[in-house]
Structures are given as structure tokens and as C-alpha cells.
Amino acid sequence: MDPIPPLSTWVDDKRSDCCTWERVKCSNSTGRVIRLSLYATYSSHQYLDESLYTPFEELQHLDLSENGVHWKIEDLERLSRLKRLEVLNLRSNIFFNKRNTAPSNKSDKSIVPFLGEWKSLKTLILGGNNLTGSLLDFGKVLTNLSNLEVLDLGANMLDGFFPFYDLRNMSKLKILDVSGNNFSGRIPPSILSLNSLEALSFSHTNIKDSVSREIPESFALSSKSLRALILSNNRLDGQISTNLFNKSLIFLRLNGNLFTGNIPNATTSKLSSLKTLDLSRNLIWGEIPTWIGNLTELKTLVLRNNSFDGPIPLEFCNLVNIEFLDLSQNYLSGPIPSCLNLTSLRYMHLQVNNLTGLMPKGLLKSPNLKTLDLKHNNLSGSIPYWLGLLTDLRDVLLKGNHFSGSIPHEFCQLNKIAILDLSHNSFIGPIPPCFSNITFGRNGAVEPAFENRIEVMFAGPAYLYVYSDHFDFDREKETIYYTVYVEQEEVEFMTKSRSDPYKGEIINFMAGMDLSCNKFTGDIPREIGALIAIRALNLSHNQLTGSIPKSLSDLKLVESLDLSHNNLSGQIPSELIGINTLEVFSVAYNNLSGRVPDMKAQFSTFGVTSYEGNPFLCGESLQMQCNTSKDSVTLTLAGLTDKFGIDPISFVSSFAATYVVYLLGFVIILYVNPHWRGLWFNFIDACLSFMFPFCSK
After folding, report:
1. What is the pTM assigned to this prediction?
2. CATH number for 596
3. How many domains does the chain have?
4. Which domain holds residue 685?
5. What are the tens digits of pLDDT across the range 435-482?
6. Where does 460-601 show beta strands of DSSP type E?
7. What is the pLDDT of residues 282-314, one digit of tens each?
8. DSSP state of 65
9. Would you give the DSSP letter of residue 187?
């Protein structure tokens, strides 16, 4: 491996002072290097020569994280010569020990036995390094690190019992991350001995002991300095301890367990600094406590997928700092509080409940709102015109309610929308042509709004939570800072005939509109063809008429196009063959006629089900040859549609009906008026005498 990292100030020149190089810090007294920060510097999947760093005898801080390089345990031992090392960050590399094979050899060393020699270490970060073996062995190695304040072993493959009795000497330990491993047994009460502990992440560790319900009580009675507790995605059960809500926590995640019962009462004065509360995916029931609404510093509240019932507390109107609110998949009822004053709100998830009433005007006080998910409730009324004032909205999901009325023109002011789901309601009227003003993910039109992690900053000591509940070290400063991240933003949207969740950054690349199962009438606006970045378009199960616009062929990125179950007529535009991304296509159960598109490109994959319910269609896909004479008539009628926008079937039907009505009216007049009847017969006799004079003679 090249010993010179790709940094602009690092030069292979003996006259250059390395103390002036970026990511290098030297001692003011000795001039020797004491800090090297080479995170995300080397190319991945290479071997690192750690002997390059052993000459730095006074080195106190070494950061080689996020390089993806291969470490051989027996070679890594050379770093133990750095006796003054206080910070060692090796996260996100690849370690090989006796239980996993390196590309070229197999190690026979035990798990990093030399770590115990770094008695000056204060921060040790080994997360995400493919480490395997017994955690008991690891604990014995670490027992001598009495100065350790930060220990990160998360996202490895360690197993066995957690050796808290080996950590009792670490009286200074403040941050402990052992998430993402495969432990057995339970967390012993000896955790109470870690009196300095401020943050603990124990998520995704497979803890499932029958007495695990005692764990929350243990934490509740432990160190008064505890500020962050993550026990998510285990199998903890029983009722959450009341004492846990009477601690001065900043961050609490108990999601993804088997907790039952009600949320206990809490002393809000103790929780006045709480920023994140996540109790989602448990078995908790009862009404949501009103005291949560008094946590005015709360930024993230996630209670989804439980069995909460009753109304949304009016006290929630006081959550002026809330940014992420998720109460979805419960049994909440009643109206959404009209007093909402959620001025910081960015993501609102209230879907899959029993909420009723109108969309509250209080949403106007959330100008930064990006996601509004109200689907599958019992909300009613029309879409209010003022919704168009929330111009930062990206995802609007109102599916499965009782909304009615027409779409207000002001709705088109929401030009940043990428996902729009109004399906399964009772909307009427035409589809607004101004929908073409909405970007639906068009490249460069709006800035990305969603990330793989949603950052929630706050002052004071804190920690970093990413998807796997890890903490992280602030490389630019000598101390640990907490930067809290909540779960990825997630929305669910129907496309390609299935409902899929879209998470994190992928939402930035998804664009779709679902207006199906309503009562929309009129033509499909030709302007819809301007939505060139849309990937899913569903207009099925409405009362749309007229022809399929040729402009839909401009939707070059669309993957799912469903126009079925309407009253569309005319031909299917052959230009649609040019959409190479199309995977799902349906125009079934309309009044379409003529030849279906040739079986070319993507259309070679569409069979009878895409066209069924249109008796006047023919072509290879239907295994039905088109009769030439009949086809020419069909093409003529289709020409009326394309040129004048006339539905041929409606035209012929109305013409015949008009003829019959006039004929019957004429007969009735002759029947009731003898004078006009005599004149008519005399007129016919005169015409016949003129045309056939020989007959009159």
C-alpha cells in the first residue's frame, strides 16, 4: 500500500514539515507527532502496513476508520508499542482472526489479546470490523483498561455472554456500544457498577432471556449520569419500569421489543431535556399519556405499531420543537387536534388509525413539513385550498379515507411533490392539467430532502445514532459529542401492482402519482406527459373518457402505467412502445378499439390481461388478427378521436339515437295533424309523378 495517503498537503519531500500537514498534530514541546486522523483515506480491500505508525512513539490519537482495509490480527499487535495512545479508532475495516479466513492466510491468534497493554487508552472504537469470537474472551482482555471512557464494539459478530463483571474496573466508562452482536443470556445487574455511564447501546443483540423484563428496572436504578439508552430490537418483555421515566434522559429507544401494558406516569421535570423517545413496535396499549405533550424539548416521537387507542392528546399542540412525529399503526380515534402548533415539524405519520374529521388548519403552522402521511383513516371533507401554502411538501399520502370534492387549483402550487397518493377516496371532477407544474422528482428541480439518517442536533454532550444504533467520535475535537439521529424516513407507495416501503435516500429517486379508485371524470390531460421523471402513474378505476394522450409516450422513466377500468376510447398510441422502462401496463376494461401496439421492446412482455375488457381491440398480443376492412373502419373512427377528440362509439350512438328521435317525432306529428298528413301524401305523390311520369299516365 502506498505509504503516502492521497492528501493534498502530504508530499514526499524531506524538507517539508509534517506538522503542517492536514490531519496531523504535533506536540508543542517536543515537536513529535501526537495525532493522526486518516479516516476514509485509503482504498478499500487492501492490506494496511501498520508498521508505518509504530515510529510515532508519542502518538496519542490514531484514527484509521472507514477505510475498509484488511487487518491481520497478528500484525495489528505491533500497534501495542504505542504506549501513550489514548484514542484508537479502527471502525469500518476488516479484521481477520482465528475464526475467519483472510484471503491469503489463517490467523491462529486469540481475539486482540494485546489490547490490554494500552492502559492509557480512553477511547477504543472497533465497531464494524467483522470481529468474531467469544465476548467473554474479549472482556478478559479489556479488564485492565481502567482509564477507558468510550468503548465501541458494535456491528461485529461477537457472541456468548456479556462479561459485565470484567468491566467493573472501568469506573470511568461513559459510552458503551455493543449493538449488532449475537449475545446470549441476560444483562446482569452488575451494570449498576458502571456509575459514570452516560450512554449505552445494546440494540440488535438477541437478548431474549425469560427474566429480561428486569433489565429496564436495572437501568432505571443505575447511574444518575445516564443520558442515552438504546435497547431496541431485542426480545425484552414485561412492563416498562416507572423509574425509567423518572431519569434525566436525553435519548430513549426501546423499540422493537415485546413490552406490554401502559406507558407509566412520569415526572416531566426529570424528562425536561428528552429529545428522542421511541417505543415503536411493541405491544403497548392504552391511551397516549398527556405528559408527553409537556416535553417541549422533544424532537423525535415514535410510537408506531402498538395498540394505543383514544384521541391524540391536546397537549401535543405544545410540541413546538418536534421534527419527527410517528403515531401510525395504532387504534387512535377522534379528530386530529386543531390547535396544532408544531412549528418545527418536518415528518408527520398518522397513517393506519381510526382518525376522523377534517384536515386540521393547524398544519399551516408547520411550514417545513415534507411528509404528510394520513392514509387509511376515516378522515373526510375536501382537500383544503390552504394546503397549497405548504410549499415544501414532498410526499402527500391521503389514500383510503373519505375525502371528496374536486382537487383545488391551489394544490398545484405544491410543485416539489415527488409522491402523491390520493387513491381510494371519493374525489370528483377532472384531473387538473396544472399537475404538470409538479416536478415529481425531475432532476435538478428541487434539492434532495431525504437522507439515510435524519440528524437532530442539540447542545451539550451527546452521541451519534445511525441505522444500527452506533455512537461515534467527533474527530475534530478531543471530547465526545452527542449528535442524535432518528430512524430513516419511510413512506409506502403502490407501484407495479404491489405496495413497497421506500426508505432514506431512495425516496429522493422515487416519483409517483396514484389517483386510482376515485370518481374523476373528463379526459386525461395531455399535460400529464410533462411529468418526465415520474416512475409510477395509476389512474385506474375512475370515470375518465376520451382517448389516451400520445404525450404519455414522453414518460421515458415510467415503470408502471395503469389506465384500466375507465371509459377511455380510441386507439392505444403506438408511440408508447418507446418507453423502455415500462414493466407494468394495463388499459383493461375500457372502450378502446383498433390494433394494440406491436410486440416490440417492453410491449413484448404484456399479454391478454393488459388489454382484456376491450372487445374492439385486436392484434398479436391478443392472438386475434385484425380484419382489414373492419380495421380500416376502426382506423377511420380512431382518426376522429385523434383529430377532433371525438369518441367514435359515442358519436355513432348519439347519431343513431338522434335519427330515431326525429323519425318518431315526424310520425307522431303526421298522426295527430290530418292537414299536414294530407300535405305530406300530396308531396310524395307529386315527387313520384315527377320522377316516374310514365307511371302517372
Report:
1. 0.81
2. 3.80.10.10
3. 2
4. 651-696
5. 988 888 775 545 555 554 444 433 333 333 332 333 444 444 444 444
6. 484-486, 490-495, 498-503, 512-514, 519-522, 536-538, 543-544, 560-562, 569-570, 584-586, 591-595
7. 999 999 999 999 999 999 999 999 999 999 999
8. -
9. -
